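User: Golgi family protein P55. Structure?
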Amino acid sequence: MEPLKNIRFKKKTAERFQEFSRTHFKTHSEALATMLDFFFYNEISPKEKLGPTGRKIENSLKKRMNAIIAIMKDVEKNKANPTLAILQSLLEGNEPKKKTLILEKNSSRKEDQKKY
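Assistant: Predicted structure:
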């Protein structure tokens, strides 16, 4: 067993550390050693802010995903479905019905025929 050394902490800080240490590690020494290793390995300071928290990032991603879904629904509604309907009608061979031409009755022909 390694020799132990006493360190003084404020009571609230010691209680917080003990609670944290009990939930994540087997011993307090292991907890403190892991914390120190984390800061040395990542070359950061404990006082340094690491940027937005996971919740903030998650919320912003959810907002962007909702915006993407709305765009996709709009594209499907306004562009994809009408185009699909046009393509299906072309593939099925449903050509537009040809309208019969309405011809003007030509009365001059009848008169020409009677004269002969």
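The mean pLDDT is 82. Helices lie at 11-24, 28-42, 54-92, 107-115.
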